[in-house]
């Protein structure tokens, strides 16, 4: 590097830049290869497939079903211990008991 500064010849700096770029490529390829190997050796794909299958089979609870569940809770629990809360986000509805989630549909 001192020679480069003294002579102004940038070939050594360019060689160093090319070497660093090559090492970066090798590093990236090794990381990608390692991640692929870890993924292939894991059960992550099977777990995700099962999760997607469960989501596709999720039962749809209609408003009438929700009201029926609410009525059962209303008839069988003290008024102080339950409250119903509708969540309009993603069509979820929650029933909370003493401010803790009891049922979500």
Q: What features would you describe in this structure?
A:
By secondary structure, the protein is α+β, with helices and mostly antiparallel strands. It contains 4 helices and 3 strands. The chain has a 3-stranded antiparallel beta sheet, with helices on one face. Strand 1 and strand 2 form a beta hairpin. About 7% of the residues have low confidence.
What is the strand and helix layout of this fold?
Layout: H1 2-7, H2 11-41, H3 44-56, H4 63-76, E1 82-86, E2 93-97, E3 100-104
The residue-averaged pLDDT reads 78
State the low-pLDDT regions, or none.
84-90
The H/E string reads HHHHEEE
Distance, first to last CA: 68 Å
Specify the helix fraction band: 55-70%
Bin the strand percentage. 5-15%
Largest sheet: 3 strands, antiparallel
The tally of helices reads 4
How many β-strand runs?
3
Order of strands in the sheet with the most strands? 1-2-3
Could you say which overall geometry the principal axes of the C-alpha atoms support? elongated
What radius of gyration results from the CA coordinates?
31 Å
Structural class of the helix and strand makeup? alpha+beta
Sum this structure up briefly.
Helices cover 61% and strands 14% of the residues. It is α+β, with helices and mostly antiparallel strands and 105 residues long. Strands 1-2-3 form a 3-stranded antiparallel beta sheet, covered by helices on one side.
């Amino acid at each position: 590097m001192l020679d480069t500064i003294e002579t102004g010849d940038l070939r050594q700096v360019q060689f160093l830049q090319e070497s660093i770029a090559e090492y970066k490529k090798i590093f990236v390829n090794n990381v990608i290869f390692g991640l692929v190997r870890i993924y292939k050796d894991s059960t992550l794909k099977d777990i995700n497939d099962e999760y997607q299958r469960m989501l596709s089979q999720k039962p749809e609870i209609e408003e009438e079903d929700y009201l029926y569940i609410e009525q059962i809770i209303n008839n069988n629990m003290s008024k102080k211990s339950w409250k119903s809360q509708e969540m309009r986000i993603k069509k979820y509805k929650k029933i909370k008991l003493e401010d803790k989630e009891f049922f979500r549909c």
